[in-house]
Amino acid sequence: MGQGKAVFLSAENYLKESHNLNPAENLFFLKHQASVNELVRTNCVHISLNFETSEKITSDRMQGLARDYMRR
Questions:
Q1: pLDDT for the residue numbered 3
Q2: Fewer beta carbons within 10 Å, N or C terminal of the chain?
C-alpha cells in the first residue's frame, strides 16, 4: 500500500461480491435500501477505521477488524 493513497478493501451485505460492483449498481442498491426503510433519514454514513502505518496490519486483518466493528 502506498502512503497517502486509499485502498478499497471490501463492501458487505450486497447482492454481489464487492469486486464485481460497478458504481451504478452500488448507487442503485443504496437508494433501494433507503427507500424500503422509512426510518432512514440520512442517505449515507461513512465510517473510517484508521491504523498507524507502523502497525503493519495486513488487508485481511483490517477486513476482519472492520467486520467485527460493524457487528458490534
A1: 64
A2: C
